[in-house]
């Protein structure tokens, strides 16, 4: 494992990026996680990748040349904590992107499944936090990915809305408990990723067009936008305990 400050190999460094630093990406085989790993490598940093899908993880590893990979379900908090603690040396940043939202109306909700969706996601983040206290260097970052969409009440949003409300409080409290490790939350709106495609199915193109015509930025937010924010939060040592929205102004216009 490369120590902080050592110069990594691979792509030429991008000014302001995490050159020579090691970033663990939990959920790094697609979408925001994969794009963040790409940008870390382009900036001259090293990555450790985990994902649930071993085949997709192998494709990501073939592209990026990570220090190591591990295929497991991050929603198993004990497994995630063991993985992080067993890393062979200190790391600079941990990014947790794993997990997907639950959009189930109350009448259709399996209560046990709803409890797992909520409690399991919190347990995953707490496991990452407890391990990061021991494995992330002082001034490094534990970074969570959340969302903004469920801030507006709607049918089927009870579980996801409760989790959306909980994550900023979790982030702020962990920033105190883990200091001098920094803890931040990225709250994204719609992001054009494989996860969005799987959730929307044949409604994806219509949703893209709607956003292009209504968002103040005039385009759809992509994984590269979120990844760029993630790298900024990793490298700006003054930022901790806060939630950073990135949705192209989606909250200010009708859904």
TrEMBL record:
Keywords in alphabetical order, please: Oxidoreductase
| Gene3D superfamilies assigned | NAD(P)-binding Rossmann-like Domain (3.40.50.720)
- What InterPro entries does this protein map onto? NAD(P)-bd_dom_sf, SDR_DHRS6-like, SDR_fam
Superkingdom to which the source organism belongs: Bacteria
Indicate the family of this protein.
Belongs to the short-chain dehydrogenases/reductases (SDR) family.
Q: What is this protein called?
A: SDR family oxidoreductase
Supply the source organism for this entry. Answer: Streptomyces osmaniensis
């Amino acid at each position: 494992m490369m120590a902080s400050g050592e110069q990594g190999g691979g792509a030429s460094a991008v000014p302001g990026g995490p050159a020579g630093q090691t970033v663990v990406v939990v959920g790094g085989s697609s979408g925001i996680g994969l794009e963040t790993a790409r940008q870390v490598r382009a900036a001259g940093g090293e990555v450790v990748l985990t994902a649930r899908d071993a085949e997709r993880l192998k494709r990501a590893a073939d592209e990026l040349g990570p220090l190591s990979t591990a295929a497991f379900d991050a929603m198993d908090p004990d497994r995630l904590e063991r993985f992080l603690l067993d890393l062979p040396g200190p790391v600079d940043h941990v990014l947790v992107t794993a997990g997907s939202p639950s959009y189930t109306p109350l009448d259709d909700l399996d209560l046990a499944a709803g409890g797992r969706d909520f409690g399991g996601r919190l347990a995953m983040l707490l496991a990452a936090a407890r391990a990061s206290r021991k494995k992330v260097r002082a001034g490094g970052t534990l970074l969570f990915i959340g969302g903004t969409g469920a801030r507006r009440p709607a049918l089927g949003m009870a579980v996801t809305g409760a989790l959306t409300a909980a994550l900023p409080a979790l982030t702020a409290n962990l920033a105190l408990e883990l200091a001098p490790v920094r803890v931040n939350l990225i709250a994204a709106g719609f992001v054009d990723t494989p996860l969005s495609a799987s959730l929307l199915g044949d409604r994806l193109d219509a949703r893209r067009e709607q956003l292009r015509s209504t968002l103040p930025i005039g385009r759809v937010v992509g994984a590269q936008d979120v990844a760029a924010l993630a790298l900024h939060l990793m490298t700006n040592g003054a930022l901790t305990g806060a939630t950073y929205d990135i949705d192209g102004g989606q909250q200010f216009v009708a859904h």
